[in-house]
Specification:
There is one protein chain. By secondary structure, the chain is mainly alpha-helical. A three-stranded antiparallel sheet has the order 1-3-2, with helices on one face. The N and C termini lie far apart (44 Å).
């Protein structure tokens, strides 16, 4: 009996954009932190409050730009290998932050709206995650 690899059920465009936003938002973070960032993006895709694709969630600007790497252009940088792995794991079902829809890095942003309007869930690496 030979082992067979799991067949991924996602397309290349999803992997392309998810790996880039994970890398731009969480380069240098532990793998679990990178997965957490990916989880937030996927949670937004599943939510009726945001667009229905990974790319559209990343570039959503209905309430202002949602992700700093879109504003500063780093979302277009080649992703780190660990971020590609994190994106694949997310797309295959890895989940470390449940229903969280928001995150921010307190060292880089006060996250005032999130702190005042959402429920804190956990901190992983440099990011705080909120429901």
């Amino acid at each position: 009996i030979g082992a067979r690899p799991v067949q991924a059920d996602y397309d290349e465009e999803d992997l392309y954009w998810l790996s880039r936003i994970i890398s731009a938002e969480s380069r240098g973070e532990p793998l679990i932190g990178q997965i957490a960032v990916g989880n937030v993006v996927l949670n937004r895709v599943k939510s009726g409050e945001y667009p229905d694709s990974i790319k559209d969630v990343i570039f959503d600007s209905r309430y202002a730009i949602q992700f700093e790497p879109v504003a500063n252009g780093t979302v277009y940088d080649e992703p780190a290998a660990s971020s590609v792995l994190a994106a694949k794991l997310c797309l295959e079902g890895a989940d470390v932050v449940g229903d969280c829809m928001y995150f921010f890095a307190p060292a880089l942003s006060p996250g005032t709206w999130i702190v005042n309007n959402r429920t804190y869930f956990t901190t992983i690496g440099a990011h705080q995650f909120y429901l």
